[in-house]
Amino acid sequence: MEAPSRGSVWKSLGAPTEQVGSVNDPRTQEECGVKWNEKWVYRNPEGDGFDRWVLWNRYDFLGAFRVKPDGTSEPESLPGA
Questions:
Q1: Fewer CB near the last or first residue (10 Å), C or N of the chain?
Q2: Per-residue confidence band for 2, with pLDDT thresholds at 50, 70 and 90
Q3: SS3 label, residue 70
């Protein structure tokens, strides 16, 4: 199965609440077990007490994660992406 594109994620989830880094930022960080240079943050998107993070390394989708208030995270599937 092919990884979702930036456009398909945007279409599925809409604009993120906040963005950290950018597609052309050479600096990487590590969270949720992956190294990324761009993070799309969706603050409590469904009112269920978690944030959604979508992590990218340049144009490559690295994963979507539910991040709970205590900082724990779990991978998440993206509907329609």
A1: N
A2: confident
A3: coil
22-55 per-residue burial string, b: 16 or more CB within 10 A, e: under 16: eeeeeeeeebbeeebbbbbebeeeeeeebbbbbb
Q: Is the pTM of this model over 0.85?
A: yes
Q: Where are the domains of the chain?
A: 6-76
Task: Give the whole-angstrom CA distance, residue 70 versus residue 56.
Answer: 23
Residue 27, SS3 per DSSP: coil
Rounded to 5 degrees, φ, ψ at 22 are -155, 165
pLDDT in the model for residue 63: 96
